[in-house]
Write a structure and sequence with these properties.
56% strand; elongated; binds zinc ion
Amino acid sequence: MKAWLDVAVLRCPNCGRLYVETSWYVVEMESDIECGECGNEFNSRKNMLSRALLEFQLDENGEIQNVHVSKRL
Ligand SMILES: [Zn+2]
């Protein structure tokens, strides 16, 4: 069985730490997030580096077995 998650990669403009968040949170809500490293608050969409669709391989109980990049968006 398979399931998918659309994710975005972000970089804190102050300290450079990288984050991965769900794309709806970044692209549709354009949320601000607070960096856990330096405390800087920044806009997630304006600091997005890339976006991809992850494919999860699941067993019959829905347990995650493996994850890989299905498509770069
Ligand atoms: Zn930071």
